[in-house]
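Fold this: TPR-like protein
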Amino acid sequence: MHRQTLATKEKALGKGHPEMLTSMNNLVLVLNRQGKYEEEGAMHRQTLAICEKVLGKEHPDALTSMNNSAPVPDNQGKYEEAESMNRQELALCEKVLGPEHPSTLTSMGNWALVLNSQGKYEEAESMNRQTLARREKVLGPEHPDTLTSVYCLAHLLANLQRYDDSVVLYERACAGYSTALGKDHPTTRACRQHYSDMLASQEQDGLARPLEIPNNLTA
């Protein structure tokens, strides 16, 4: 459906028209969910190039495009590229939108995921906690984006075998998602599953293996 919409807009408006950017960003997100990271990366670069050419690098829509696909290099194992992209993105978001804008907070969350993937757990924890504190202030404690920060931090602390802290956060995330999204929402189910996996790991005499970052975690 996104491809069809994009093709129709391109035919009617032209390839570089700003109205195409929303459809391109939506397609990037779908490709990410499907794990088609190479194609996602190519679409992201194309979208970002159009954003910068038509709108300018510091336009809010250009920053949204960067936000949507900043984790792409990380998904492909290109950690240094991912970290560089996220640093650049966060600096631009803070400059243009301010430190408490939702897009800035998304950028912070994305960077925390990249740091986690690289095993930079102290930096990742610090970034997660900053993101969580700002989201609680700006969006409220029960907003789904705030709960995603709780979920990410719980996952990180589980990998560090700080189970007592992780349990508290997982319980908050699971309860919050159940209320905000519903008990059968995919994110709610994934959170409960990872909470269960963490409890199982905790019981393995301190020999818990690091948990993989859940695919549904989009900060």
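Residues 207-213 have pLDDT under 50 and may be disordered. The first helix runs from residue 2 to 13.
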